[in-house]
Specification:
Blueprint (H helix, E strand, L loop, with lengths): L1 H10 L1 H9 L1 H13 L3 H14 L5 H12 L3 H14 L4 H13 L3 H14 L4 H13 L3 H14 L4 H13 L3 H14 L4 H13 L3 H14 L4 H13 L3 H14 L4 H13 L3 H14 L4 H13 L3 H14 L4 H13 L3 H23 L10 H4 L7 E3 L11 E3 L31 E3 L15 H8 L8 E3 L7 H20 L4 H13 L3 H14 L4 H25 L4 H29 L4 H13 L3 H14 L4 H13 L3 H13 L4 H8 L3
Parallel strand pairs: 1-2
Antiparallel strand pairs: 3-4
Helix pairs in contact: 3-4, 4-5, 5-6, 5-7, 6-7, 7-8, 8-9, 9-10, 10-11, 11-12, 12-13, 13-14, 14-15, 15-16, 16-17, 17-18, 18-19, 19-20, 20-21, 21-22, 25-26, 26-27, 27-28, 28-29, 29-30, 30-31, 31-32, 32-33, 33-34
């Protein structure tokens, strides 16, 4: 037993000791985990570096970034404080601390961070963006305009800056210049929905309803899941007397956002107008569940209850409204009528007496020039009597029959806080589906997609080879804290198993999977390689080694691009050579998988993904064709083949494949189709 323990110490404990001593290596693993969004795991690695070398700024900075992505904004701010104390010249630390403060609504502190960061990097587009956003949140519009003007000097084609400046101009009541900025944003980014919806809202307020509807059409075509665009287009259609079209838009908006107040209220009004009383009551029931004190919704429901014969329910609603608005004459009329219909003559007479008294009071007020409404309804008095809409903040119960619109201070436009990644890539959302891996964890998805299965993997699961079922997926889930600890423990257990039998390839493979899951790619590759030295026909090891190498190279390339600050041409040449060399190793492993198991469709699929990355599009198409021949319901293959056709300029073929991908469950395919069928 002691000999086995000594062998274990000599063979495997050095790896764990290195995690404590070689902080550079642990930092590399931690940043790798951070890049692949395994935030809980990355924090554990950064903790090790902090314990070993607490004077370094980097582990605090990157740990703060991981906490930020886990919505721990206080923890992120504290870690950035520690990083800045150790090195006050790191722009990213101010940036992440500023974002954390924005999320805590500490805008003044965030402004200080971005101002300090811009002294170090005065041409950083992200910093100017977020500084402008902070000033907008503080309603410091002149400062926000100055920031945005500087941003446009740095990046004159940055469309979001025009949208933000247009928003500022609207707050300053300069509608004409705001429209100029929205027009410019659309000119620069015609495939981004924000410009179209921003311009449409202005046109809606100006009464240019047909033009507003056309702009909302474009915004919806580019972003089908934005409920606000349907709500606003419904208003444009309503003002053009297209009630059915408006109700259809409210239906669509409420499918996306079932809790939308304006959607239910306005749809209830329109349903009442077309005689759909029972479903209108359902809408007002929903509104009153959200806000039981909404008197206008209560009164509308009372009218509908009376219309459908529920007089007692109507009386309850009318009474509630009259307790808040005792001078609301129409309420007494309606309650008196309902009371008579249930035989309550005395109650009806009391309401009629209240009506008579109100009429006398109104005559007296007119003769003495007294105002007929209190100050809370001053805004409503200024509206045109024929107006069919009211602001949501309007509490004048006389406007119960008007559609609700957002207040001037409300907006459906939001501007994201930029935190990482190249600004020039922010709007590039069209990318192929990723490679498939063997793992134990998969993220849930809203859409049900094709089940991915292979008989050998199913046999492993049936034989309980692993502690849980092995999955084939390209939608990996990050590990939580318990899973991280489990796989560190499994690594120790597998190490002991390997010592007891050095010639078992499965044991090496199992530990390689554990190393992969904790983002230790170097040790994972080492174990997969050792597995293949024992059995060069064990195809899962080739398959996973290809995946790990691909991810390792992907991370290295991202690091290289981030660090290229001198000669772009020389850096690009070096990166291209690195790609060709590294990708050949991945391709060699995938070729071997296909040779060993020619019916394993995921080998062809992953090789097609690799060939696409290498820009060998026609070779990629050949592999995608093979995948679809073997598995006709492979949604991801249709999606990627569609994008590949589009890359080659064959939009018709690409759209056909994307349509099939959408049918099979990849919802984003429809957005891509919209972009390429203009």
């Amino acid at each position: 037993m002691n000999i086995h323990k000594l062998l274990l110490l000599l063979l495997f404990v050095p790896n764990l000791m290195m995690a404590q001593i070689n902080t550079d290596r642990v930092m590399a693993i931690a940043r790798n985990a951070l890049y692949f969004e395994d935030y809980v795991l990355s924090i554990q690695y950064f903790n090790q570096v902090v314990s070993a070398k607490p004077y370094l700024y980097e582990p605090y900075f990157y740990r703060g970034m991981a906490k930020f992505y886990l919505d721990d904004y206080v923890g992120a701010e504290n870690d950035c404080n520690m990083a800045i104390d150790r090195n006050p010249f790191v722009v990213g630390a101010y940036q992440i601390r500023g974002l954390s403060r924005i999320r805590q609504q500490k805008y003044t502190d965030a402004i200080q961070d971005y101002t300090a960061a811009l002294r170090l990097d005065p041409e950083n587009v992200v910093l100017w963006h977020n500084l402008s956003l902070c000033h907008m949140q503080q309603k410091e519009y002149e400062q926000a305009k100055d920031d945005l003007n500087r941003l446009l000097e740095v990046a004159p084609r940055y469309a979001t800056a025009y949208l933000m400046r247009g928003e500022v101009l609207l707050n300053e009541k300069d509608t004409t210049q705001a429209l100029v900025d929205f027009d410019k944003a659309i000119e620069l980014e015609k495939f981004e929905p924000g410009g179209w919806s921003a311009r449409a809202v202005v046109k809606l307020k100006q009464g240019r309803y047909q033009e507003a509807e056309e702009d909302f059409d474009q915004a919806i075509r580019l972003s089908v899941r934005n409920a606000s665009n349907y709500i606003n287009r419904a208003l444009a259609r309503f003002h053009q007397h297209n009630l059915r079209g408006a109700m259809s838009d409210y239906d669509l908006a409420l499918d996306i956002d079932p809790g939308n107040f304006m959607g239910h209220y306005n749809r209830g009004l329109l349903r009442a107008q077309v005689g759909d009383d029972n479903r209108a009551i359902e809408d007002f029931d929903f509104v009153l569940n959200i806000d039981p004190d909404d008197m206008m919704a209560t009164y509308n429901r009372g009218l509908l209850r009376a219309q459908t014969g529920d007089y007692r329910g109507a009386i309850v609603d009318f009474s509630k409204v009259l307790s808040v608005y005792p001078e609301f004459t129409a309420g007494y009329y309606q309650r008196a009528d309902a009371r008579r219909k249930i035989g309550d003559s005395r109650g009806a007479q009391q309401d009629e007496f209240a009506i008579m008294r109100a009429q006398i009071d109104r005559l007296n007020q007119t003769s003495t020039n007294k105002p007929t409404q209190d100050n809370t309804t001053a805004d409503a008095e200024q509206e045109d009597a024929a107006s069919t809409t009211r602001k949501r903040s309007d509490k004048n119960v006389e406007n119960y029959h008007k559609l609700v619109i957002a207040d001037d201070t409300e907006t459906n436009r939001t501007y994201a806080n930029d935190s990482r990644g190249r600004v020039q890539d922010r709007n590039v959302t069209i990318k192929p589906e990723g490679m498939f891996v063997l793992t134990f964890y998969e993220r849930p998805t809203d859409m049900k997609r094709t089940m991915h299965y292979y008989r050998y993997v199913d046999e492993l699961n049936h034989n309980k080879t692993f502690y849980r079922d092995l999955l084939i997926t390209n939608n990996e889930a990050a590990l939580d804290a318990n899973q991280v600890n489990l796989h560190f423990a499994l690594i120790d257990q597998r190490s002991a198993d390997i010592v007891s039998n050095m010639n078992d390839p499965m044991r090496r493979f199992m530990r390689g999977l554990d190393f992969y899951l904790v983002q230790d790619f170097s040790n994972a590759i080492s174990d997969f390689t050792q597995c293949l030295l024992i059995d060069d026909t064990f195809f899962p090891a080739y398959f996973m080694r290809a995946i790990v190498r691909f991810k390792q190279f992907e991370y290295q390339m991202a690091e290289n691009q981030a660090q290229q600050s001198t000669s772009l041409v020389v850096g690009q040449l070096r990166t291209d050579k690195l790609d060709a060399m590294d990708y050949s190793l991945v391709r060699r492993d995938l070729d071997k998988v296909i040779d060993l198991v020619p019916d394993f469709v995921y080998g062809y699929y992953n090789r097609a993904c690799l060939l696409t990355q290498m820009k060998e599009y026609r070779s990629a198409l050949t592999d995608y064709d093979k995948v679809i021949d073997m598995k006709p319901d492979f949604a991801e293959a249709y999606y990627n083949r569609g994008l590949t056709h589009i890359f080659l300029g064959n939009n018709r073929l690409g759209i056909a494949d994307l349509s099939k991908a959408g049918e099979l469950g990849i919802a984003s395919a429809y957005n891509v189709i919209k972009r390429f069928t203009e």
